[in-house]
Amino acid sequence: MFELLAASAPSHVVNVASVAGRIATPGNSTYTASKFALVGWTEALQPEMEERGIYLSSIEPGFIPTEGFPQKNLVADRFMKHLLGTDAQVSAAIMDAIEHRKPQRVVPRWYYLFQVPRVLFPALYRVGLNKVMSSSAGRAASDFR
User: Fold this and answer.
1) 64 with 86: CB under 8 angstroms?
2) Do residues 18 and 33 lie in contact, with contact meaning Cβ atoms separated by under 8 Å?
3) Per residue in 49-104, pLDDT tens?
4) Tens digit of pLDDT for each residue in 27-47?
5) Domain ranges of the chain
6) Assigned CATH for 2-141
7) 8 Å CB contact between 59 and 16
8) Is the dihedral of CA 127, 106, 26, 32 positive or negative?
9) What is the pTM of this model?
10) Which residues, 6 or more positions from 76, have their beta carbon under 8 angstroms from its beta carbon?
11) Which sequence positions are flagged as catalytic?
12) How far apart are CA 96 and CA 91, in angstroms?
């Protein structure tokens, strides 16, 4: 596969993962693990492939209402509905990653802020995550299906 991409270099591979590939979502451990794996694989492969003219990007959407994942609980919640992004934002992020060879894009962009406490204050982050996930709004947010 990589030979074909290298033959048409410069080329670009975009992996659409999830913000769950950076931030654990209790109650969805299998989903989270698969997204962590995709994000990690993309990051690990980037330097090796870039030498061949193949660029890799991971797009990491948050909650996006789609036909498969309508996010009904979030859409109906007065506060949680503000966490939603759009499929147009995801499409724009994909195009931006390709055009500017960005290795990562989070959608919506402000979701990057969720990573700061996880990295700088992991113990405090875990306490906060547990509190959010035990609330009714947190249970609504964990409804990926």
Assistant:
1) yes
2) no
3) 999 999 999 999 998 988 888 888 888 888 888 889 999 999 999 999 999 999 99
4) 788 999 999 999 999 999 999
5) 2-141
6) 3.40.50.720
7) yes
8) negative
9) 0.80
10) none
11) 31
12) 9
